[in-house]
Design a protein that fits this description.
Elements (H helix, E strand, L loop, with lengths): L5 E10 L2 E11 L4 E5 L6 H8 L7 E6 L2 E2 L4 H7 E4 L11 H11 L10 H9 L15 H13 L5 E5 L7 H16 L3 E6 L2 H5 L4 E6 L2 E7 H11 L6 E7 L3 H7 L6 E6 L5 E5 L3 H13 L4 E6 L3 H9 L6
Parallel strand pairs: 3-8, 3-9, 6-7, 7-8
Antiparallel strand pairs: 1-2, 1-4, 4-5, 9-10, 11-13, 11-14, 12-13
Helix pairs in contact: 8-11
The structure holds adenosine-5'-triphosphate and magnesium ion.
Length: 320
């Protein structure tokens, strides 16, 4: 197993008398897209600010790429690209001028005149066509993309993105997701926070879930789901939506002798919701029984995605 690129150990933080993080520990493997999930006020931004060397924690340590953020903040800053949740806007600068300014501050231009780094980043983030546009006149989605372009200038190994898709419309969200997948393909590790689960479920392989400053689950999504299925009776029953050409009564008849079937009921948009025991193998058996009974099945999908099931199970919906 490779060294984790992020190691958060027993992290606690208080703002004055208010204790907002309690003994949080988790690790991120290199190359992962890691989702940091939690309701408003859970402590995501606080954790991210510690990871990004901007906040000294009350207790605990964070290692980024093997370096302690408190002892080697300069080196850590070179290996991370941090995008805050609400970044300020620079007036009167064009997209290119904005990126050249940050390229100069990050000292990544050759001889102070060769801005090929900026060209590369404009290309990657699909902003090349907008290079002369003034930053204050850009849409939110485009500004978000520009923020991402900015943190890529010094080619960091690890991107730390605080709610990168908040305020984005559906198209801009999809584009952001595709860009993150492209960055992963380029070998970057991406740590991103969000409370929009569907957004994370599409891209993340691992997650940490925070609630009221405490870590409630962390690790690869499949591993958490498997572990919870063993511990929690409510997860032993899985629900899937089936799209079939047959009426519900005929499906009921076809499955009358199937022991794994716990329930059948009408679902939204003409679907049938099947509750069943067991895992994938059991579901495959049930679908096979339907096909053998000549029920035409043309879609089977989980009623909720894995991440939503995990989240609902481990959090109680309390706000801090
Ligand atoms: N500078 C501060 N001073 C005092 N309290 C703060 C400060 N920053 C955050 N808090 C409090 O710390 C808690 C955690 O806040 P944090 O911003 O880390 O949560 P979050 O998970 O990022 O929430 P959100 O989803 O709303 O961004 C909240 O109760 C918040 O009110
Ligand atoms: Mg936040």
């Amino acid at each position: 197993m490779s060294e984790p690129i992020v190691r958060v150990q027993n992290l606690s933080h208080s703002y004055g008398p208010f204790s907002v993080l309690h003994d949080v520990s988790f690790e991120v493997e290199p190359g992962a897209i890691f989702g940091f999930i939690g309701p408003n006020g859970a402590g995501k931004t606080t954790t991210i600010r510690v990871m990004s060397t901007l906040l000294e924690p009350s207790q605990g340590t964070v290692f980024i790429d093997g370096r302690d953020v408190a002892l080697a903040p300069e080196a850590v800053r070179r290996s991370i690209g941090y995008m805050p949740d609400h970044a300020g806007v620079y007036e009167r600068l064009s997209v290119r001028e904005y990126l050249e300014f940050f390229a100069d501050s990050a000292d990544v231009t050759r001889d102070g005149t060769d801005y090929s780094v900026v060209d590369g980043v404009l290309e990657l983030t699909d902003l090349a066509k907008l290079e002369d546009k003034l930053v204050p006149t850009m849409s939110k989605g485009m500004k978000q993309r520009l923020q991402l372009a900015r943190v890529l200038l010094h080619d960091p190994k690890l991107l730390i993105l605080d709610e990168p898709a908040s305020d984005l419309d559906p198209r801009a969200r999809i584009e952001m997701r595709d860009l993150l997948l492209e960055l992963k393909r380029m070998g970057k590790t991406i740590f991103l926070s969000s409370h929009i689960l569907s957004e994370l479920a599409d891209v993340c392989t691992s997650v940490a879930i925070l609630e009221k400053g405490r870590l409630v689950a962390a690790g690869p999504i499949e591993e958490i789901a498997r572990k919870m299925a063993g511990e929690s009776p409510s997860l032993e029953c899985r629900r899937v939506r089936i799209k079939t050409l047959e009426p519900l009564d005929r499906v009921r008849g076809a499955l009358a002798d199937e022991k794994g079937v716990l329930g059948l009921e009408p679902g939204p948009q003409g679907t049938i919701v099947l509750s069943h025991a067991g895992g994938d193998a059991e579901l495959a058996r049930i679908v096979r029984a339907l096909v053998l009974a000549e029920c035409g099945i043309f879609n089977v999908e989980p009623e909720r995605n894995e991440l939503e099931r995990i989240f609902l199970e481990v959090t109680r919906g309390d706000l801090q």
